[in-house]
Specification:
This protein is α/β, with parallel strands linked by helices and 178 residues long. It folds into 2 domains: 99 residues, Ribosome hibernation promotion factor-like (Double Stranded RNA Binding Domain), CATH 3.30.160; 43 residues, 2-Layer Sandwich (SHC Adaptor Protein), CATH 3.30.505.50. It has 3 helices and 8 strands. The strands form 2 sheets. A 4-stranded mixed beta sheet has the order 1-2-3-4, covered by helices on one side. A 4-stranded mixed beta sheet has the order 5-6-7-8, covered by helices on one side. α1 runs parallel beside α2. The radius of gyration is 28 Å and the shape is rod-shaped. The N and C termini lie far apart (61 Å).
Length: 178
């Protein structure tokens, strides 16, 4: 981790600098990519203040502590930062697992909608089991569920169809062209 230590109202000390760098090197195990840490150590009257800003790996984490002892302030702020990093990493893992399991919200596409070429959105593929049934039965199944659409094999034509809820309260049927 690239670290810069700044001293305000305090004589620069190699001991404090090396202490901060040693502690921050332990954070590399939490971060996948290189990060940058900006540390400001200052003294105001009897208060010792440690401020840390860590930027990198899609994270921007800040922490600040005031105590009577500089080493204690550094340890306390690093504990806070560790909790913040773990929490952020957990959120990222949960978002990725939600995407992989197909829990993404279904899109409502209106008739005549043409997506922009440069929209930057992701296409998330999911697999769906579909059963043979009539379109009327598909509407009844849709009423029983909270879903916005149902994919099924039309028992009359033996082709895949989609029944969906429209914004006006009616139902739409999507059939392939012959």
């Amino acid at each position: 981790m690239q670290t810069s230590v700044t001293f305000k109202n305090l004589d620069p000390s190699e001991n404090l600098k090396s202490y901060v760098k040693d502690k921050l090197d332990k954070f590399d195990r939490f971060l996948d990519n290189p990060a940058e840490a900006n540390v400001v150590l200052s003294v105001e009257k009897f208060r010792h203040i440690a401020e840390f800003n860590i930027i990198g790996d899609r994270l921007k984490i800040n922490g600040r502590e005031e105590t009577n002892d500089m080493y204690l302030a550094i340890d306390m702020v690093l504990d806070k930062l560790e909790k913040q990093i773990k929490k952020s990493k957990q959120k990222i893992r949960e978002r990725r697992s939600d995407r992989k399991s197909g829990k993404a919200a279904a899109m409502d596409i209106e008739p005549g909608y043409i997506p922009e070429e440069d929209s930057g959105g992701e296409i998330i593929a999911t697999t769906i089991d579909y059963k043979p049934m009539d379109p009327e039965e598909a509407v009844m199944q849709l009423d029983l569920s909270d879903d916005n659409f149902i994919v099924f094999t039309n028992s009359r034509t033996e082709r895949i169809n989609v029944v969906y809820r429209r914004n006006d309260g009616n139902y739409g049927l999507i059939q392939p062209a012959s």
